[in-house]
Amino acid sequence: MAKEEHKGKTLPQIAGILGIGKFDTHFFICTGPDCCDPEAGLAAWQVVKRTVKALNPNLKTSRIYRTKVGCLRICQSGPIAVAYPQGKWFHHVTEDNAEDIVKYLQSGEIGPHPLEFTEHPLTAPEKDGAKASDR
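-> C-alpha cells emitted (135 positions)
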C-alpha cells in the first residue's frame, strides 16, 4: 500500500521526495530471526531510525539512508548491519550501540569501528564501461 505522500506520483518523483541518489551511506540492519531475536533487531532498528532522523532532519539533505532487512545471511552474532558504499559490516548492533554506529558512519571516520568485523567497499564503475572484475 502506497504512503499518502507517494500516491499519484511516479517512481522518479518518489525517489526525488526521498532524496535517493544524494546519500553518502545506505545502512542496512537485519532484524532477525536467524541472527538475533526479532525483538532485539526491531529495538536496534528504532534507534537507527531515531538517530538518522536526529542527525539529518531533512530527508532530502540526509547523508544516511536506512533500511531494515530480514536477513543479511551471516545468521549469528546479530543484529548484523552493513553500510554501503563503505562496505563496513557490524555485529551485535543493539539498541545500546546503534546510535554510536550511525554517528561513526556519518562522521566519515576511516579507522574500523569496534563492532566492525569485515570491510569490502564498493567501487565506482569504470567510465569506459569496463567491469570492476575486468581490472
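The CA atoms of residues 66 and 72 lie 14 Å apart.
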